[in-house]
Amino acid sequence: MEKETFTSDDAMPRFNELSDSIWKKYGVIVQLAEVRGNRWSYVAGQDTDCIPVSHPERVKLNERAGVIIYYRDGRDQCVRNEITRLLEEFGKNS
C-alpha cells in the first residue's frame, strides 16, 4: 500500500468491503491499522467482538500501515497466501 492509505477518500470503505468478503469466504478477520512505532491502531475492517479468534498475526505493509489478521480456526498457509494476494491487489488499487 502507498502512503495514501489513510488519506484516500474511498480507501476505508473499500477496505471494509474487502474485509467483509474475506470474512464471508474464509472466516478470517482482517483489520487495517495505522502503525506508530510499536502501537497499531485500528482504522478499518471487521470487528472482533463476540467472535472467538486466535492470536492475531500482524503484517506490516509500510512504515505507516499494517494489517492485523485474526484466524478463527488456526492458520492455514493457503488461506494466508490468498489473503496476502487480495491485500496486495487492494494496495495497488488504493
Characterization of the model:
The protein contains 2 helices and 4 strands, in the order αββββα. It has 94 residues and is an alpha+beta fold. A hairpin with a 2-residue loop joins strand 1 (28-36) and strand 2. It has helices spanning 11-26, 77-92; strands at 28-36, 39-45, 57-60, 65-71. It has one domain. Helices cover 34% and strands 29% of the residues. It is globular, with a radius of gyration of 12 Å. Strands 2-1-4-3 form a 4-stranded antiparallel beta sheet.
The sequence of SSEs as H and E is HEEEEH
- Compute the separation of the termini in Å: 7 Å
Largest sheet: 4 strands, antiparallel
What is the domain tally? 1
Strand content: 25-35%
What is the number of beta strands? 4
Number of helices: 2
CA radius of gyration: 12 Å
**Helicity level:** 25-40%
Mean pLDDT over the residues: 81
Low-pLDDT segments: 1-5
Shape type: globular
Write out the strand line-up for the largest beta sheet, numbering strands in chain order: 2-1-4-3
Helix-strand layout with pairing:
Layout: H1 11-26, E1 28-36, E2 39-45, E3 57-60, E4 65-71, H2 77-92
Antiparallel strand pairs: 1-2, 1-4, 3-4
Helix pairs in contact: 1-2
Key words describing this protein structure:
four-stranded antiparallel β-sheet; globular; 2 helices; 94 residues; alpha+beta; disordered N terminus; 4 strands
Brief rundown of the structure:
With 94 residues, this protein is of the alpha+beta class. It is 34% helix and 29% strand. Strand 1 (28-36) and strand 2 form a beta hairpin.
